[in-house]
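User: Fold this; tokens only.

Assistant: Input:
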Amino acid sequence: MNAVRAAALTPLPRNWLWLWLAAGLALGSAPLRAQAISSPLHGRVIAVADGDSVTVLDAQQRRHRVRLLGIDAPEQAQPWGAEAGAHLKALVLQHEVQVDFAKTDRHGRLVGTLRLQGQDVNLQLLRAGLAWHYKRYAEEQKWLERWRYARAERRAQRERRGLWADPAPTPPWEYRQQQRAKPR
């Protein structure tokens, strides 16, 4: 039997952990579900709507509304909402940024990772304790990015940074649901 044929007939390793590790590493740089990846958007942040939404002006003077992927900041009327918006504004307003995006949301905003000088701004908001890791949409993140975001949120909680100083902060998705349920 030649070496090529013998290699083809070699049984799979019994230790599946190695297969999971290899699969995890392969997926570490790719989203878990197929997405049409677009070229990054480069431009200047001209407005900050709140703690997780900005407007970017590109080189052709077109405005792009951007929703930050993987995080959900408190709404403006919530505790820490104004602080999250002010923090994001201080970080990026009038700065050149890159937006790595893969989709638009139902409001027509690009959904992506905002980068300032190569640094992940979305992650910085989590580290500051000014946003939640938005696990509802975590499958849209690259595996390694999802892991970093979850770790940053846990650390901010443990160190009681920002909104985690509150013993029971209300996540923005619950706050929005409560607001919709109120009689008008």
